């Protein structure tokens, strides 16, 4: 007796539209237009064209500013990621801005390889506001 052959099947492209709905999108869609900004969640879109500065801060995949607050061994930290260009100029400008707000001397750690700037203390809202004012 011979073993049975492979099962018979029929290809159909008519139902593939149902399968496409289950597949995740290949990229995040552009955010919809809102009647006013900032939105209730606090999100604001970037300016139309990037500013003419020696550095650039790219937004995250979900169109948010890459400013993160955290804690490490009891220390409060603020991290700014996705920095391209002259990271030292950004650090100088950010220190000057935080100094104008009355924040005492801010300790910062610059990592040129990863394009990350870490600040001591929770100053995320101030950094986000500064980035929005600069047009990022």
Automatic annotation (TrEMBL):
Positions in coiled-coil regions: none
Keywords of this entry: Mitochondrion, Ribonucleoprotein, Ribosomal protein
Protein name: Large ribosomal subunit protein mL49
Superkingdom in the source lineage: Eukaryota
Presence of keyword Kinase: no
GO molecular function: structural constituent of ribosome
Record GO biological process: translation
InterPro entries noted in UniProt: Ribosomal_mL49
């Amino acid at each position: 007796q011979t073993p049975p052959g492979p099962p018979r099947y029929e290809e159909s492209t008519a139902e593939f539209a149902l399968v496409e709905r289950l597949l995740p999108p290949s990229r995040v869609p552009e955010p919809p237009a809102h009647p006013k900004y900032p939105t209730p969640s606090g999100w604001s879109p970037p300016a139309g064209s990037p500013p003419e500065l020696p550095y650039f801060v790219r937004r995250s995949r979900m169109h948010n500013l890459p400013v993160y607050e955290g804690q490490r061994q009891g220390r409060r930290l603020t991290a700014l990621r996705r920095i391209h260009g002259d990271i030292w100029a950004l650090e100088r400008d950010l220190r000057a801005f935080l100094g104008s707000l009355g924040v005492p001397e801010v300790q910062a750690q610059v990592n040129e390889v990863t394009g990350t700037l870490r600040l001591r203390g929770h100053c995320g809202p101030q950094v986000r506001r500064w980035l929005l004012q600069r047009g990022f």
